[in-house]
Design a protein that fits this description.
With 211 residues, the protein is mostly helical. The chain contains eight helices and no strands. The chain is globular.
């Protein structure tokens, strides 16, 4: 093995470890900030805004940027986030209640609540997908509009993200310790993946023909 090749592999490993370390740091800060109910979704939005920087390693002072984005998200989305928090609890309670109920009304209620849950989760993931590129002048209304358009245009990718996130929730229910590792990162990474799966224009065939 050449020294150049060994050094290249070492640098690649160190770069990956740096990315993992930055992601875990963001997750830890997210956990601390999300203890207050009103700060939960602003913290998630701030994490999403700096997630591309953590993955690309192109911008220094990641933690400082995170707190800047948290201040921005809190000033704009704290009320909407609070409504989303209590709405999520009500929806989860409804699902648990009707899942343990009896009778035909149980089937009818679940037939409404399950698709509604999937749509809300998909809309949330769509919001995470568009957040990194959202302008600083964004409002809850404009973010909802962008997320809704994204959901309509990339419904297949969003559906895959919903399945992945629900699978994550199922794993957390069996291994609660996973919550501390990925409660903020997993939805964020899924949203980042959805954004990266946008349809790319087909590459035109090269006019040059080799003979």
């Amino acid at each position: 093995m050449s020294e150049t090749g060994g050094a290249g592999r070492t640098n690649a490993v160190l770069a990956k470890l740096t990315v993992i370390g930055d992601l875990l740091m963001l997750q830890l800060v997210f956990l601390v900030l999300s203890v207050g109910v009103v700060t939960l979704y602003p913290a998630a939005f701030a994490l999403q805004r700096v997630l591309p920087d953590a993955l690309s390693q192109e911008h220094p002072q990641l933690l400082r940027r995170f707190f800047q984005q948290f201040k921005w998200a809190f000033s704009r989305f704290w009320l909407a986030g609070l409504g989303l928090y209590f709405g999520s609890i009500a929806l989860a309670f409804g699902l648990l209640f009707w899942a343990n109920a009896n009778g035909a009304i149980r089937v009818a209620a679940l037939a409404v609540l399950i698709p509604l849950t999937g749509m809300i989760v998909g809309l949330y993931l769509s919001a995470l997908a568009v957040l990194p590129a959202a302008p600083d002048t964004s409002t809850p209304k404009s973010l909802f509009r962008e997320a809704n358009l994204f959901l309509l245009r990339r419904s297949l990718a969003v559906a895959g993200g919903v399945i992945a996130l629900l699978t994550w929730f199922a794993l957390v229910s069996q291994l609660p310790t996973l919550f501390a590792i990925g409660s903020g990162l997993v939805p964020g990474l899924i949203g980042y993946w959805i954004a990266r799966t946008r349809t790319k224009p087909a590459e035109k065939d090269s006019p040059d023909v080799s003979i």
